[in-house]
Design goal:
about 240 residues, 14 strands, 6-stranded antiparallel beta sheet, alpha+beta, 5 helices, 8-stranded antiparallel beta sheet, single chain
Length: about 240
Amino acid sequence: MQTSPATTSAANIARALDWPRIETELATRGCATTGVLFSPQECGALAALYDEPGRFRSRVVMQRHGFGQGEYQYFANPLPASVTAWRSALYERLAPLANAWAAAMGQPADYPVDHASYLARCHAAGQLRPTPLLLRYVEGDYNCLHQDLYGDLQFPMQLTVLLSRPGEDFTGGEFVLTEQRPRMQSRAEVVSLAQGEAVIFAVNQRPVAGTRGSYRVTMRHGVSRVHSGRRHTLGIIFHDAR
């Protein structure tokens, strides 16, 4: 079967990432940056899709639901070629780690090796709606701490790609991740990204090695208030929604 240029490019870049570092940081912090994945031109083209409503299945205004302030739109099928390519390429690299996490938490370690097979499992469970999304924030906007669950089946990691230029297109608007360990206060991580760079992070729970074996910590993520300008991000979630 012939592959598209987007698929080949994503697979090649994904293969060249520093996976030992990424896996170590995911294990110790619950998140890891990738370095730049998308060129400025690719970032601009993806951000421009926000104003093409035919590309999306739904639009959410955060303040109407108590999610924060700002808005986002979920892509409809077919997804943009680059989003599909990156979703597949990164899933294949993260699936072994997802299985290791599941085993450590006493869950079935049966994530399939390719994303198409995992999506088939989601669809069989009634999770049919695509979850990749574009988010737009302007001055004063923010995103409350939350989890992107969407159904009974959840891949344990996801990523956010910054499409705008920090310090030029916007100021503020930092990615924030919190971790709640049993009987301990929450710990926060603030992640600064370059344009085109992604942060991979835990969706819900992840294992942490303790003196008596692994235990679970609960993760949530959000975005601090944007001080000026306009901020676009791409969210890639590997499970589909009910």
